[in-house]
Write a sequence for this structure.
């Protein structure tokens, strides 16, 4: 009589790693992924360096602009909290330079700060309107492609890099919309209504703006049925 084979229990994470590390194909794929990650990291640091240099001259010890807002997080108590007010004019000036989407999005995230709201709104609005043109977007993708390919060496082909940058541009557009929703004041209400009605902007971005718009109307206790109706209509757009 044959012995019944004992049921194998679930494989542990440690056993799985040993199995994968014994697979030459998996090891080679991991090395390639790590090489691409390091190549992209070098590209990003190089793209951030002009702004990082100027921030260091102001006394901000940063490697990239991302360090500014990352150090504001409560779990980073080991690092000093930067005083944004000194950096805001520099951030706005650099935001208007022809950086890649990654750098401009990082600057934008740094500008989503209470000290920057009134100073940065008009600049962000101009960028939001400008990038609504698909031809402008395509031109910026092509412009951003060259330094990426140069910095990444042999790791990325044009075919691999272009979809990556296109996706980054979409992320940038959403961050622009988020920034406008955060920054606008009562005097900007007509501008926000105009943006909500502008079909050049995606339904997803307009829906996001509309939700911010409704939140601000409630916070400011503006009892205007027409404005509320506009916000509610665009808050329900299909993405």
């Amino acid at each position: 009589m044959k012995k019944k084979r004992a049921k194998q229990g679930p494989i542990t994470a440690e056993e799985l790693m040993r199995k994968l590390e014994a697979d030459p194909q998996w090891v080679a794929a991991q090395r390639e992924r790590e090489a691409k990650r390091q190549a992209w990291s070098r590209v990003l640091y190089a793209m951030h360096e002009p702004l990082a240099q100027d921030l260091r001259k102001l006394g901000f010890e940063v490697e990239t602009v991302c360090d500014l807002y990352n150090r504001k997080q409560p779990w980073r108590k080991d690092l000093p909290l930067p005083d944004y007010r000194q950096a805001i004019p520099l951030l706005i000036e650099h935001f208007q330079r022809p950086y890649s989407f990654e750098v401009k999005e990082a600057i934008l995230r740094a500008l989503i700060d209470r000290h920057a709201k009134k100073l940065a709104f008009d600049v962000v609005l101009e960028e939001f309107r400008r990038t609504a043109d698909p031809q402008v977007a395509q031109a910026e993708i092509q412009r951003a492609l060259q330094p990426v390919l140069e910095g990444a060496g042999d790791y990325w082909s044009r075919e691999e890099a272009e979809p990556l940058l296109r996706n980054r541009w979409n992320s940038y557009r959403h961050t622009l919309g988020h920034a406008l929703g955060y920054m606008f004041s009562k005097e900007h209400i007509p501008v926000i209504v105009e943006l909500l009605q502008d079909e050049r902007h995606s339904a997803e971005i307009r829906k996001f703006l509309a939700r911010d718009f409704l939140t601000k109307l409630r916070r400011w206790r503006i009892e205007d049925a027409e404005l509320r109706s506009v916000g509610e209509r665009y808050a329900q757009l299909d993405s």
